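Q: How would the structure tokens look for this protein?
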Amino acid sequence: MTPRLSLLALATLAGLANAQQLVLPDNMNLGAITSSTALWRTTLGRFQTAYDSTHFTGAGVTGPITINRLRFRAEDGQRDLGGHVFTNITVEVGNCAVDHAAMSTTFATNRGTMGFLGTTNVTVLPASGTIPNDYVIDIDLAAIGAAFLYDPTTGTDLLVDISFAAPAPATNLVPFSTGSTTVATARGRSVSTSTSGGLTGSLGAPATLLVDFAGPGGYSAWNAARAERIGVGCNGATSSFYQDFQLNDTIDLANTSLTLTPDNVLAPTIYTVTGGTIAPDLTKVNAAPNSIVDDALVTHALGFTLNYVGGTTTTIKPCTNGYVWLDSAQTLADITPTVAELLGITATGTARVCPMWVDFHAGRNTATHPNSGLHVMTDISGGPGNAVCYATWFNVGVFNQNPIGGTSVNDMQCVFHEATGVIEFRYGSMQVTPATLAIVGFSRGDIGTVASMHPGPRDLSHEVPFSTSVEGTTNAITHNVTARPIQGVPFTMQAFNVPATVWVGAMIYDFAALQPGLSFPPMAPGCVLSVPNLNIYELYVLPVGTVNSTPLALPAGFMGTAMYTQFVGMDVPGNIYSSNGLKLTLGLN
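A: Here is the predicted structure in token form.
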């Protein structure tokens, strides 16, 4: 067992902030990808949602509270323009006559002591597609006389009962976030119908609901728990590089560019990657797109020979999902980005460049943005030896946008230069949030029968310029956590690919970060320190391969605080190794 020495002491701050908000169910604050069109719907409808009283008592509610506002959230990651109007919605909040787990399909059976009936009109607000997403239906109960005095300490569950006519327009309403369909997980349930009169309905998952109230308990600031990769660490002897944007990350490359410059035009061995602000040339498109199909490849003869690190090609295969195969033999149009696939570890694949590998849909915006789609063309106007090929994702959408055109508009370009061998990633508007993962970078994939070495993630908006390496036999150390830092819930910090030569290692932390990181002295060429003060959480003697920290749980007093962590190690000659850094924001799930 690896010896550990814990040196971090975090004081638990007593009590909760004087606040009055809760999200129901309380495990749906971030990444609530489940959704429904059965509650708020495009027909007339009625639905009830019941929530277990422990959602309130678990958040410090110790007595009666007055519930005065309800807000319903759009599906996470879903962009929408909003604008639908519901008129004469009727709303009642009250006590559920049965336990939420025993909710009846008959509406009247579920109604206990109810508050006053309120009537209101609602305009659905725009959804920006964040994770968690925006609350797009907002009902002020106090303004319509429907506020309710609720006491969860009695063990009685909360019931919300809403009826409405069909909205205008009665099409393309955004899906709404819901809790788990597993009742024990959500600790809530719903029943809904589109039948006129609304006496009975079908059971389903409860709506994700932000509740405002007056009284004890709750939270003043509702922060999402986040784990975001920063920095780069030591990228090892690797020819690949990448940044993987996780479920909760903000893609921050809009209106920037990345340039990959080879060391030798005829036989490149490394790329030097620099950042910039070269905009996509949106005149370099065809009279009609090469593809508006979801999950498709376009085969394009370059008209010249492109020498890239690891190979040469005269034909490329851009994919509507945001990457380009440099090997014309490849046939996969993949919608599920993973680093293991990029490197050729879990799937057979060779060289590709990824301006942004994500689940785009090239045909989403054709009705609102003429000529949108994937365009590939070679411009020979520069004369012999100076051809330039442009692969342009022109005003494309994402797969999970509401089908109304224009809710997600993305302009991105990958440019290949014959004369210099330079490859450029150019970004314009990027209205995309990864519902699973998004990857930017380059990899040779499988090199012969061996996968590429793991370079570790890199923050491409900060950690440039840099150069790749001739492919070696060393993986970079990669730092991660087993779970996002949810208030009071233990998580473990991890380091992978720790070299066997490292005799001592440490998990370090700080409440500030260096972006870009600070290069270590000559004993650690290419290594970066992202956590400036080297506070030690744990020491490890003879760490090998994978290191797991002692679980850490951050208390309520740190709500919204960003904590930065990194793994560093040293071998016997005194060489230093470092991982990428992590930004951990304490919040609620």
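The helical segments are 54-57, 107-110, 183-186, 339-342.

Residues 1-18 have pLDDT under 50 and may be disordered.

Upvote if useful.
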